[in-house]
Write a structure and sequence with these properties.
The complex is a heterotrimer of chains A (586), B (108) and C (780). Chain A is an alpha/beta fold and 586 residues long. Helix content of chain A is 34%, strand content 15%. In chain B, a hairpin with a 5-residue loop joins strand 2 and strand 3. Classes of the chains: A alpha/beta (586), B alpha+beta (108), C alpha/beta (780). Chains in contact: A-B, A-C, B-C.
Chain lengths: 586, 108, 780
């Protein structure tokens, strides 16, 4: 599209105000399901989706998906409880919000089956049941997963605003009454007044530097979607919402250099982790932690240790696959990360002859995989009335993956509907709106002689800072108090320097706000990492100065930033075990 | 990672407001240049989801692995049917692999 | 979903026992009876005989099935009969499908029985796949106007108005001049009966004046047109007349007191004695014909503050403050009759038009003949001036020779001792004109010289012109002097035609005339409901203009009935998939798409011709025709098994346009012209329907070759569908090449309706080349 000319002042920029009943910020998996559920429960509701990209391919599902890792085969004796127990064990016993996890597990299967009804091909076994490729994992041919969901949301009557990036919540008397943002293509300022707001913006990527970012062509060679930067978290943080478990960073073993998925290879096709000496790493060194079935953070840390101790490179051994299996594996990969197949082709690798090299990835904050995110109640409402969260944005419940996030979107919609029954929209707070409009467009209106910094410069500064001082991959995820303090000090410095950001066009303006949002998430993240003075999940959080588990920290670590003073308080909430039994066994 | 646009084939979707690749890119990276042809404004920011490659109606876009990560030249070409997709992968040694599967509809 | 209404009743009609001899019918039926969704499967003896449909009607009544698939060689008429008969039994006509195994070559004795058997099964399964997805449809009735807009009140426009007013339709005649009549009104006489045009035009006017069904809008122009057939929304601008049409009856008192005289010439040419400079007063009767009877004022010429006419008018009809007006009309059809302009002959420099006052055009000559002055003694006529000439007009305007012949005739009648020279290349006097030509050749004082003057010069001070001509028949060069030289120039589309083409979105051919389908539908334009008549379509004489106008009126009639019935096979845009790229809007050959309130492209049902080109062009497959949806097509393709012929034999899937290609293919099979059995075909409304995703489906399924057959260029029934699909399939071929698949697996062929031999040959070659290429690498 012809680039819009840069406005000279704020007065030139039109403001569009939209009223709605339910506002969904982020039209991804959880977001689409939230919208669909809201409309199906009450077709008369006005449901609006605010999406920074285009809903048909936005977010983590842009390329597709090859599996749904949470489905309960009740005929095999699995139940919602067994799923939650397994999930708990996968994070070393927790703590996890078992209440949230159970509520998701109860409507999990139904949510997955809805996808099939809408046209998602799910692989079946000879008896016509969803075929398992892991204990709870089923295979799907999900190249069209995102378009299918997006079309359903539109069919149900949700009004979608594509290319509108959210920047802040709209608040009234401590309640969330909508969100504000700007048009990435049309350059307008948008104000959405909503009776209930559901944040489903996904997780936060790009807080840490990924190791291929040294090279100019591969800055976004991350496992996670690099366009999800934690805007939802940041907006909540700025409004004073309580966040949970941010220290449970999601780091996983990924294919080396490409950062492609490995679960498909190791779980579905049973390829085991080996090192350069040909040893079976998990079986041989981590038998006490489960061996080949060890929890994910163990599987992550293992290759890093091998590498450090001189036994790298580390692999998943695909050489034991036959031709047919190798082809089926590639087909799965084509559904999820097709360019990984291209990557193998560009190295001339025949996986039946050469194993696939693996390594850890850079750390992400992903509430769909670990428990990081907003602290929510059973209705998925955060500590800010009127603000709901679901999917990767909502915390407390790890191992949700596609199915769980979808289910949670539906739960958030139900919670939102319940809440908004008694809500009337207040008058628009014009001061708040004009302040936000000024804040949003400031980088674009600096003028030609402005001497400042580009968003990419600040982004790289942040990423390098976090990598070296807050346990990034170059440090093999290791951190200590002094480095964390250093990191915090410089993150705060960067926050004070965002006033120097300038953007030459709307795309760069979006990048500017992405770095501002990442900074707010990073700040709270470091507080969490500092607070948890123990190493409960090595890799996800390796405290060199506190290498053991501290039983007093068998609880949730919470944080909250005061919107007026900026002071961050960090505290705990107790863990409640609902499902009895040994927490470390699933 | 950098989507490579064949400038002869690309007609900028007839220099419409937004060519199809620009409409769909999740990173807001594909855009129409002054010359009426599409290009990627920041190849290093591409996540290679291949949405642009699939969307291009004249087949002008190819996704490539950056040379920092892989050798020259491997190709992965999607062909969209109504409810199937076929992929052709050609590696740097010229070996061809083909895949085909249903991407819409129940599998029974 | 599995109620009786979605089950299928499959009925086989083995006419003449041909099918039973070619394949094992019982085996086929047994196989099919187990297919998904079959409620009934049997042979029917004679479905078209009385009582022959009882197995079907009984089954419908009992609820065994709710849709019917017929297998058999039913002709189109027979299909229609079945639709009507079963409609009486309550079956929606769109819930029936036909599968003709014979036309696909199943009865071809040359082919192995096994293969024939499998092919039959595949073909029926394809038809079943489509039948399962059929939906009951009803035609859509859209209310329509009973008014018609006729642009141009010349001879064509007036006669079209007469035809329609007579039938009770409301007619709006729009004319740019102050009076009706057009070019014909300024003629002296027109052949063949040498009528006075005022008489001929008056004749048409009589039928129109006083009719409450006719409204004249003079001094008016069309400024915009929206909508489609049955419902056009038109805006007109009416320039001020400065005289009230209700009050003025043309008494002329105003003219007598008007102080200003203005020239009324054509083409801005200096007028001289021969052209009897016409002058009128600034307030004058309507022209070219004094109808409407109200006068008109050329306000630009009025002296400041002059109000003489206002004071003189006994009926207070003068209104010097009149403003232009806008008018909006709703009409069901539009007839364009905007006529012609003479080619500006000053561009043909060698003949001195514009340089010498006694060189005039044949149109000017009409005025000379109308005047009472004595005509000059010697007059030369030059034919084909600026016509049949690559530097000017490459075509022949067909009337100029006849015009000259008649002008010579009048001259001789008026001044028997005048001498006329006619300089020509060929005298074109078709039909009954020949007689006149022969007569004139014998007439004293008329000389035909076969040769064009090479120079035209003034002859000293005499005022006469000297011409040098080579008489190609005798080979001699002659010098001839004339008093007056008449140049027979050609006709070009009027400037108004050009303007209107833009407003209506009507394409014009390379010569600037409105494009129409000349042989079959000469008055039909590329926009449904808009017709073109008379010289704006092509140069023609007055009689032909009148016929053309009457014809256009007939064609327009169906859209003036108060409602238009739309067949329910119109396109539907899936708004959840559509991303508004507008390709459909751009490529639709009929400009049918517009943006709805949500900004989505939507077809205007009144304009749409249901060709399916939008389906083909949509890169997201978001558009389907009802009763021919993408899903139905994809299901058919999926059912087409990749190897019914046997492992090594390639399979070809052909998409045949049902206008020409299908008939050619059918004949080719019927006459045993050697169409290879490897071919399965699917009919499409236009080759342009074929969307690339469908070709991708076919290849992905393992089909070895895909052929798309459309009409020849220039013959596509939907203007350019064949070209659109060709460009797309070329793009696809490029992609195939990159994918290391032979690009030749996808082919396009142009076929005329009788190109059966060509079809058979192309198929044989295709199969041969596919065998050489090897099987489709996607045959996984």
């Amino acid at each position: 599209m012809k680039q819009k000319s840069v406005p000279k002042d704020l007065a030139e920029i039109p403001t569009q105000v939209i009223e709605t009943d339910v506002l969904v910020v982020g039209g991804g998996n959880a977001g689409c399901f939230a919208a669909i559920e809201a409309k199906s429960k009450d077709p008369s509701l006005r449901v609006t989706i605010m999406e920074k990209a285009h809903i048909s391919r936005s977010g983590a599902l842009a390329a597709g998906m090859d599996a749904i890792n949470t489905y309960i085969r009740t005929d095999k004796g699995e139940t919602p409880e067994s799923l939650v127990r397994w999930s708990r064990a996968q994070v070393g016993g927790g703590p996890i919000r078992e209440d949230l996890a159970l509520s998701i597990a109860e409507i999990l299967n139904e949510s997955v089956e809805m996808l099939e009804e809408w046209g998602l091909p799910i692989v079946k076994d000879e008896n016509g049941r969803y075929k398992l490729r892991g204990r709870f994992d089923i295979s799907i041919q999900g190249e069209q997963l995102k378009p299918i969901m997006a079309e359903k949301a539109m069919e149900m009557g949700a009004k979608v605003y594509n290319r509108v990036a959210a920047t802040n919540l709209l608040m009234h008397d401590g309640r969330c009454v909508g969100a504000m943002g700007f048009g990435v293509r049309d350059g307008k300022f948008y104000v959405f007044k909503a009776k209930a707001t559901i944040v489903t913006t996904g997780g936060a990527c790009g807080i840490y530097k990924n190791y291929t970012s040294d090279y100019s062509g591969a800055h976004h060679q991350t496992w996670m979607c690099p366009f999800n930067v934690g805007t939802g978290y940041a907006m909540g943080i700025r409004a004073g919402a309580e966040m949970t478990s941010l220290e449970q960073r999601w780091v996983a073993v990924r294919t080396k250099d490409f950062n492609g998925p490995v679960d498909t290879i190791s779980v579905a096709y049973g390829c085991l982790i080996t090192n350069a000496k040909g040893q079976r790493v998990l079986r041989d060194r981590y038998a006490h932690l489960g061996g080949d079935k060890a929890p994910r953070f163990v599987r992550l840390n293992a290759p890093m240790v091998e590498w450090l101790e001189g036994r790298g490179p580390v692999y998943v051994d695909t050489t034991l696959l036959d031709e047919e299996e190798a082809k089926a594996l590639k087909e799965d990969l084509l559904n999820e990360r097709p360019t990984f197949v291209l990557f193998l082709a560009s190295r001339g690798i025949d996986i039946t002859k050469e194993p696939v090299e693996i390594y850890g990835s850079d750390p992400y904050i992903v509430g769909g995989h670990t428990g990081s995110g907003f602290w929510v109640d059973m209705d998925r409402m955060t500590t800010i009335p009127g603000l709901f969260a679901a999917g990767e944005a909502a915390g407390g419940c790890p191992n949700k993956f596609v199915g769980g996030c979808a289910a949670e979107g539906r739960l958030a919609a139900r919670g939102a509907i319940k809440y908004l029954a008694s809500i009337t929209l207040p008058e628009l707070d014009s001061q708040q709106v004009s302040e936000e409009k000024g804040r949003v467009f400031a980088p674009l209106l600096r003028g030609p002689s402005f001497d400042g910094i580009t968003p990419v410069e600040m982004e790289e500064r942040l990423q390098r800072l976090m990598d070296e001082y807050a346990g990034g991959i170059s440090q093999f995820y290791r951190m200590n108090e002094e480095r964390l303090d250093y990191a915090l000090k410089h993150v705060k410095m960067l926050q004070s320097q965002t006033q120097y950001l300038f953007a030459k066009d709307l795309h760069e303006l979006m990048n500017a706000h992405e770095v501002i949002d990442r900074l707010d998430v990073a700040e709270l993240l470091i507080h969490h990492l500092k607070f948890r003075k123990e190493t409960r999940w090595p890799g996800w959080q390796t405290r060199m100065d506190y290498p053991e588990i501290n039983p007093e920290l068998d609880c949730f670590v919470e944080s909250r930033r005061d919107p007026r003073t900026g002071v961050v308080e960090v505290f705990t909430r107790p863990y409640e075990q609902i499902i009895p039994g040994d927490r470390t066994t699933g | 990672m950098p989507p490579k646009v064949d400038r002869e084939k690309c007609d900028g979707c007839k220099a419409q407001q937004e060519p199809l690749c620009e409409q769909v890119c999740p990173g807001d990276l594909m855009t129409l240049g002054e010359d009426g042809k599409a290009y990627c404004r920041m190849p290093r920011d591409c996540w290679d989801c291949m949405s642009c490659t699939k969307a291009c109606p004249v087949g002008a876009i190819e996704t490539r692995i950056p040379y920092q990560l892989g050798y020259h030249v491997a190709k992965l070409i999607p062909l969209m049917g109504t409810n199937t997709i076929t992929w052709t992968c050609i590696d740097i040694n010229g070996k061809v692999e083909r895949f085909r599967y249903v991407n819409r509809g129940r599998l029974d | 979903m599995d109620g009786p209404s979605s089950k299928i009743g499959l009925f086989v009609w083995d006419q003449g026992g041909r099918l039973g001899r070619a394949i094992d019918l019982a085996f086929l039926l047994e196989n099919l009876s187990r297919a998904k969704g079959i409620g009934h499967c049997s042979i029917v003896e004679d479905p078209l005989a009385p009582g022959g449909l009882s197995p079907v009607t009984e089954g419908l009544e009992k609820g065994e099935f709710g849709r019917v698939l017929w297998v058999g060689p039913f002709s189109l008429e027979q299909q229609e009969v079945l639709r009507q008969q079963l409609a009486k039994a309550g079956l929606n006509p769109f819930l029936q499908e036909w599968c003709d195994l014979e036309e696909q070559g199943v009865c071809d004795g040359e082919v192995d029985q096994e293969a024939r058997q499998r092919k039959a099964l595949v073909l029926v399964q394809m038809a079943l796949a489509r039948t399962r997805l059929l939906e009951p449809l009803v035609p859509v009735e859209i209310p329509a106007s009973q008014s018609v807009l006729i642009v141009g009140a010349g001879v064509a426009g007036l006669h079209a108005a007469v035809s329609l007013a007579r039938l009770g339709k409301r007619v709006h005649l729009v004319e740019k001049e102050s009076g009706v009549g057009g070019k014909v009104a300024s003629l002296h006489r027109f052949y063949p009966r040498l009528c006075d045009p005022l008489c001929g035009l008056e004749f048409a006017l009589q039928a129109l004046i006083g009719s409450e069904m006719v409204e004249f809008h003079t001094l008016s122009r069309v400024t915009s047109v929206d909508g489609g057939r049955g419902n056009f929304h038109v805006r007109l601008t009416k320039a001020p007349r400065y005289v009230s049409e209700d009050r003025c009856n043309g008494c002329g008192e105003c003219s007598r007191v008007c102080p200003v005289a203005i020239p009324l010439t054509s083409e801005g040419h200096r007028s001289k004695e021969y052209l009897h400079a016409l002058t009128v007063r600034a307030i004058h009767p309507a022209s070219p014909m004094p109808f409407p009877s109200a006068y008109v004022i050329e306000r630009a010429y009025c002296p400041p503050d002059c109000e003489e006419c206002l004071k003189a008018c006994p009926s207070s009809a003068v209104n010097l403050e009149q403003e232009p007006r806008e008018l909006e009309l709703s009409v069901g059809a539009i007839i364009v009759a905007t006529g012609w302009d003479p080619y500006p002959l000053n561009r043909v420099e060698e003949f001195g038009y514009g340089a010498y006052p006694n060189v005039i055009t044949n149109l000017d000559m009409e005025r000379v003949l109308s005047s009472n002055n004595r005509p000059p003694r010697t007059i030369g006529f030059v034919q084909c001036v600026g016509s049949r000439d690559d530097r000017h007009l490459p075509y022949c305007s067909s009337v100029c020779c006849s015009v000259t012949l008649k002008q010579v005739l009048y001259l001789k009648q008026k001044a028997p001792d005048a001498h006329c020279y006619v300089f020509y290349q060929d005298i074109r006097s078709p039909g009954f004109q020949e007689e006149l030509y022969q007569k004139l050749k014998e007439t004293e004082g008329v000389t035909f010289v076969r040769g064009m003057p090479s120079t035209v010069r003034p002859h000293g001070d005499t005022g006469r012109l000297r011409l040098r001509v080579e008489d190609t028949l005798s080979g001699r060069e002659v010098n001839i002097e004339v008093d007056l030289l008449v140049l027979a120039g050609g006709m070009i589309p009027s400037r108004e035609s050009e303007e209107l083409a833009g407003i209506l979105g009507l394409p014009r051919n390379s010569l600037g005339f409105f494009e129409s389908h000349l042989q079959c539908h000469p008055e039909e334009s590329q926009r449904s409901g808009i017709y073109v008549a008379g010289c704006c379509r092509e140069p023609m004489n007055v009689a032909a203009s009148i016929e053309s106008a009457r014809h256009a009126a007939m064609e327009a009639l169906p859209f003036l009935n108060g409602s238009v019935l739309i067949k329910p096979m119109y396109p539907v845009v899936d708004k959840t998939k559509c991303d508004k790229c507008k390709r459909c809007m751009e490529e639709c050959p009929f400009g049918s798409f517009y943006f709805d309130e949500d900004g989505f492209p939507t077809p205007h049902l009144g304009r749409c011709r249901q060709c399916g080109n939008c389906v083909g062009i949509c890169p997201l497959g978001a558009i389907s025709l009802r009763h021919l949806t993408m899903k139905q097509m994809a299901a058919q393709i999926q059912a087409a098994s990749a190897s019914f012929m046997g492992k090594e034999e390639p399979t070809v899937l052909a998409f045949l346009c049902q206008n020409d290609a299908y008939w050619a293919a059918r004949e080719a099979v019927k006459r045993g012209m050697g169409v290879p059995p490897n071919v399965l075909f699917i009919k499409v409304p236009c080759a342009g329907y074929v969307n690339n995703a469908l070709i991708a489906d076919a290849l992905a399924l393992g089909i070895d070759g895909v052929l798309i057959a459309g009409c020849e260029d220039g013959q596509c029934h939907y203007v350019k569908g064949n070209q659109l699909v060709r460009k797309r399939s070329d793009d696809l071929s490029d992609k195939l090449r990159k994918m290391m698949i032979e690009p030749d697996r996808v082919r396009f062929v142009n076929l005329e309706i009788r190109d059966s031999a060509k079809y058979a040959k192309v198929m044989r070659l295709f199969v041969q080349e596919l065998k050489a290429m090897g099987l489709n690498p996607f045959k996984i």
